Amino acid sequence: MAVHPKEQRIILKYADEPGFTPDIDCYMKHGGYEMLKKAVGMEKQAICDEVKNSQLRGRGGAGFPAGVKWSFVDRKSGKPVYMVCNCDESEPGTFKDRQIVHKDPHQLIEGIIISCFATDCAKAFIYIREEMPKGAEILNQAIKEAKEKNFVGDNILGSGYSCDIVVHRGAAAYICGEETGLIESLEGKRANPRIKPPYFPAVLGLYMCPTIVNNVETLCNVVHILRMGADEFAKIGRPNNTGTRIWCVSGGVKRPGYYEVAGITLGELVYDICGGPKDGRTIKAIIPGGSSMKILKNGERFTGKDRDGNDYDWGIEDIPLDYDGIAAAGSMSGSGGMMVLDDSVEIPVALANLMAFYSHESCGQCTPCREGSLWLKKITTRMVHGQARPEDVDLMKSVADQIEGRTICAFGFAVAWPVQSYLAKFEDEFREFAERHSRMDGDRTAAKELACNH
User: Fold this and answer.
1) Is residue 9 part of a domain?
2) Cα–Cα dist 177/173, whole Å
């Protein structure tokens, strides 16, 4: 895979380099584990301070500052502290962590051990989804190699610090991407998310002990923060949006794939790096950060004031490609799974596809989500199968509004946001679609009656 000039590869620097392999000898030839050697000679708080000062934000979805999350952990409770690496990557449209695991697993192992050392973690777990069997195999081999070099296990590099890593394969449930649902699954229970408070992982996490949950990409960044220093890392990208970000681009573009960038706009990624829409097509809309994020319609304007109080007026191509830029446009960067919809896509059909997924993946713990997601699936399925009703558009919005904010975890938002934003941006298309398909159903019914009468 050729690297585009506008990419700024740090985490993926060697991922597609000819001859680079996932074994430990290759990794060490490229400077691997040098930062772990540096880390065990540092004060633990100094490492935590570097991560906090780098302004690194979590790459898994919410974008919460990693260093701040680490500071919440209760290290004086007398209980062991655990580190959980979220490698579930179940958000549709997202496939970046898979690339890291398959192509450069030791980078992740090094990031985990440095993070565990800094936060006094006794043990680390990599929670990987069932559909990544090869990834689990690669990680187990990498951990074995790292143990042989004394980078994992007892008395790491003679520091007196010991930490093991366990690869745990999940059962392929979307809800396990939510950190407390993941923890429940890791404990061998049904993955029902926990109520927060009191079950904040930093206080009551795995086995009711203090727990840090970080994404694969987040933990890899820790290696590079130590290598270049917090100040240099913070210069990459925009303030409050530091470092690079790996974006997975799929759908109606000429060059779908994964790209590591910083400080560019959405238009630069979609049009310059990904080549724009396919021949003969135009871009209709973009889902910026995975299927649960609110959709952005091509042609609309995004206006308001930025963090510094300056006015902005953007088209979809002008949106800064980071947490704050996409949030200012009314959506979220989420897990970085960008899906481009061209003019061949019927929005009601796309929404029906999503609702079928979310109704299937609801854990069923909360009534609004369990029942509401199924209702939305039934309405959208009926709509695309020629049985739409004029009132369906208003009914869908009503159901989505009653799910949002009424569930234990953010899954309710994942169900509601696509419905709300698709209807808000494409209401005319939904109403025209409903009218057209309800008329088709009526025509079929009349034809059947006519046939029966004869």
Assistant:
1) no
2) 8
Per-residue model confidence as pLDDT tens digits over 91-121: 999 999 999 999 999 999 999 999 999 999 9
> Who's near 219: CB < 8 A, 6+ residues apart?
85, 108, 111, 112, 115
What's the helix, strand, coil split of the chain in %, to 5? 45, 15, 40
Helix (H), strand (E) at residue 85: strand 81-87
Do strands 121-128 and 164-169 pair parallel, antiparallel, or not at all (unpaired)?
parallel
Run of H or E residues at 100: helix 96-103
- CB burial string 226-260: b at 16+ within 10 A, e below: beeebeebbebbeeebbbbbbbbbbbbbeebbbbb
| β-bridge partners, 139 | none
**130-158, pLDDT tens digit by residue?**
999 999 999 999 999 999 999 999 999 99
With respect to residue 295, please indicate whether it lies within any of the assigned structural domains: yes
DSSP element (H, E) containing 96: helix 96-103
Secondary structure of residue 277 in the 3-state scheme: coil
Is the domain of 81 the same as that of 220? yes
Last residue of a domain, one of 178, 211, 235: 235
Distance of alpha carbon 22 from alpha carbon 19, whole angstroms: 10
Q: Which amino acid belongs to residue 360?
A: H
Dump the DSSP string for 102-143. Answer: HH-HHHHHHHHHHHHHHTTEEEEEEEE-TT-HHHHHHHHHHH
Quote the CA–CA distance of 367 and 39 in Å, as a whole number. Answer: 47
From CA 130, how far away is CA 119, in angstroms rounded? 29
How many domains does the chain contain in total?
A: 3
> Which whole number is the average pLDDT over 378-396?
92
Of residues 453 and 307, more confidently modeled: 307
As to burial, measured by CB atoms within 10 angstroms (0-12 exposed, 13-18 middle, 19+ buried), residue 308 is exposed
Give the pLDDT of residue 8.
97
State the amino acid at position 399 in one-letter form.
Answer: V
Which of the 8 DSSP states describes residue 419? H
Q: Where in the sequence is the domain holding 57, given as residue range(s)?
A: 24-235
Question: Residue 356 falls within a domain, yes or no?
Answer: yes
